[in-house]
Amino acid sequence: MKTKILVVEDSGPMRSLITAALEEHLDVDVYEAENGFAALKLIPDNQFKVIVTDINMPDINGLELIVFLRQHPNFKDVPILIISTEAGEEDRRRGLEIGANGYLVKPFTEGQLVDTVQKFLT
Amino acid sequence: MEKPQVKAIKDFIGEAEEILESLSEDVESAQVQFESSSKVKPDMVNKIFREMHSLKGLASMLALEKITVVSHDMESLLDKVRMGKIKFGPQIFGVLTEARKTLRQLVVEVGQGGEKSSTDEILAKIAEVSGGQPAGKQSGKPRLKLEEETLKSFTEYEEHRLKENIEEGNNIFAVQVGYEFTDFDTRLRALTEALNEKGEVISTLPVMDPSLPEGIHFRLIFGTDLGETAVKSIPGVSEGKVTDLMESGRSGEKNVPRGREEKREEMQEEPEAPQPKEDGTAVSDDAEEIRGISNTVKVDILKLDEVMGLVGELGLVKASFRKIADNLLGVEEMEDTRQELMRHLRSMDKKLEELQRSIIEIRMVPIGQIFTKLNRTARRLARQSGKEVGIQLFGGETELDKRIMDELVTPLVHLIRNAIDHGLEPTPDRLKAGKPTEGSLAISAYHRGNSIVIEVTDDGKGLDYERIRKVAIERGVVSESVILSPEECLDLIFQPGFSSAEKVTEVSGRGVGLDAVKTTVESLKGTISVWTEKGRGGTFQSILPITLAIIQSLIVRCCDQLFAIPISSIVESFRISDEEIEFVDQKEVYNLRGLTLPIMRLENRFALKRAGGGKPDTLFVVVAKRGDKVAGIIVDDLEGEQETVIHPIGQKLGRLPGVAGATEIGENQVILVIDTAGLLAPLEAVRV
Q1: Which of B573, B527, B550, B579 is nearest to B663 (CA)?
Q2: Which chain B residue lies closest to A3 (C-alpha atoms)?
Q3: For A105, B299, B354, B584, which has the most beta carbons within 10 A of its beta carbon?
Q4: pTM for this structure?
Q5: How many Cβ pairs closer than 8 A exist between chain A and B?
Q6: Which string of DSSP letters, residue by residue, matches B583-621?
Q7: Which residues of chain B neighbour A64 with C-beta distances below 8 Å?
Q8: Distance between CA atoms of B30 and B28, rounded to whole angstroms?
Q9: If one looks up domain B365-545 in CATH, what number appears?
């Protein structure tokens, strides 16, 4: 089985672009979640190697998802990459504090995204 | 196929147009809120903020610099507003409106080749407003009975909302609920909605606690002017646990300075009329606003059906003119008039034909429109099955009638499921067979004459004739004594009740099998076939007309009248003599290679009168399909095959069973098109 990566992002086009970039450059299978709920549904059955998440989302936000993942026995050590806006500086800081492993500020290039995820994979 | 970049730009314009439209609506709603209460609700501010945010995200991925910068600066400004750092006021509305206009103009320009308009002015304005007045008091960290970890999971915005709630004198509660995994999202959304009616859900935190029962648990932080008892009575809350989070434990309606209900009533008593908007904009600006960015119109397919119907009726009107012209033939003093009438009729003919072709063209869409969705579904199914599948799509630009395309989605999903579930082998089996671990699934489309061919191919284990036969016998689809050719064997998989999967899987399920696919394809006047090579995979091929408006028909004659029978519903046709028709139970039948074929004489069905009264020596039987059964139609003669455009006809005839519509053949002759299923319905058709 290919390495599984979870991308949580509520903007459809953004999500597709991220998926396309990752699947094109890395040998991975990207699972997409359009919000926190969808992410929660995928978690019990899939062991993701990296989780990429937006912060500002309806339902449950990225930080809440991170807190949950860090308490989950299967995900307490899985690298989490935050993608956030420049305005979200404070939220990024909080994210790192509660256990995210890195962040990318939108807009980021395909290369930056692929490099960061690859770093987390190895 | 379009180049990826071109497609991305097109997608962007569509998406951006939608965002800007809802932005425009939301700014207007915000304005109404502001005018009536001098306040804009936090969720509305947040929504506008998120719209700017989405637009920026989209533009930045395509490196559209100007749109990115403007939406970025607006996003930062709105962020300050939603955080309460800047107060919402007329200035904000002004800059919002202007920014939206600039952004819209830029999106238009992207469609025309690139961003052009200057953004200096709007950027300066945003900067000016951003430096603006602070919204006032900011208090320190709220004092609440909340653990550090929960507080840390708040975004800056949520923290701000929490503070605001406390400042307004609201109580803060934690509502903890647990749900089954299957439906937690709908139930939680319902609860959130109920709570938001009575206050504000500030944060929703999923809880991981092994001591809790199975399922998934959430902790909602809820700000409200209600007391604990009232909160507990909100629908959906009673099954959870409510904790008062206020430090002093102050909970009760008393300490609320001014209830929300009260405020609402006040608003209703003296509703302020919305102020007329500034009238500074020129008419052309307004016109520009209203005009759509993309050059297309969306039309309900039913409207096109209607127009097509009208063309058909015009054809009939034309035929009656033609009849008038024919009646004038031989009347000497009218010859000039007749000639003129004929000339106009010919020109009308041409125009009608063009009109018809245009409508058919309008209905055509590239099948790529469903490819994206099919690809997504295929990937999901592959995941569920645990198999590695590479999916390839070919011929997305192939066009077909929109209605046919829509109808095809279900059968195609079915074929994809079938390939993933039954065709492709699990990885260990593939390795054993010396195949790459990743299975291949290809969906391709191409034109062949007036038909579209759609193939679903996999490189899996292929179909096993012996097993198909065995299963068919087990399921009673075929009797053991029947000897079957390989082709006939394959055909069994399309029989109702046949499903060769040994076990029921999540992906394919059981029962609703390929027979459903076949039925749909045939209802679209198409055919489906399969070929396979053991160990190498299989291909399901469907051939469908690109439009249902034009079909290949067999023209038959009966009592000197012509009729068209759609070829797709004919099995075979051949000459017989009248003596060969036998009676069984007082019904006419024909012995077709040992099969008792029920028959119907077309002349009886349509009460046609035979000139001279005598019966013809030879007849023709057209064996036609009715579902998966057959029956025969007796006609005098076969005239040949022809492409026919079916026109729906007037309501009276349209309801006549056995008539599908009318078509024109050759010299302005309008004839009826037979709907074999309707025509043969009174007969007890037999299975071949």
Answers
A1: B550
A2: B388
A3: A105
A4: 0.47
A5: 102
A6: EETTEEEEEETTEEEEEEEHHHHTTPPPTTSPPPSEEEE
A7: 153, 203-206
A8: 5
A9: 3.30.565.10
Domain boundaries of chain B, sorted by first residue? 4-130, 148-257, 301-363, 365-545, 550-687
- CATH architecture observed for domain B550-687: Beta Barrel (2.40)
Query: B195 CB contacts (<8 Å, ≥6 apart)?
Result: B175, B201, B220, B222, B224, B234, B237
Chain A partners within 8 Å of B58 (Cβ) = 11, 13-14
CATH of domain B4-130: 1.20.120.160
B62 touches chain A (CB under 8 A): no
Residue for token pair 């009638």: B401
Distance CA B376, CA B374 (A): 5
Which amino acid type is present at position A87? A
Evaluate whether the domain defined by B148-257 bears CATH number 3.30.70.1110: yes
CA distance, residue A106 to nearest chain B CA (Å)? 7
pLDDT in tens, B180-234: 877 888 888 889 888 988 888 998 888 877 777 778 889 899 999 888 888 888 8
- Alpha carbons B438 and B459: distance in angstroms, whole number: 10
Least confident of A24-33, B516-525, B593-602: B516-525
C-beta atoms of A106 and B60 within 8 A:
yes
Q: Characterize the bridge pairing of strands A102-105 and B216-224.
A: unpaired
User: Domain range spanning residue A113?
Assistant: 3-121
For position A111, which CATH number holds?
3.40.50.2300
Q: To the nearest whole angstrom, how far is the Cα of B186 from the nearest Cα of chain A? A: 10
A107 CA to chain B: closest CA distance, Å? 5
Structurally, chain A folds into a number of domains equal to 1
Residue predicted with more confidence, B221 or B1: B221
Q: Which amino acid belongs to residue A33?
A: A
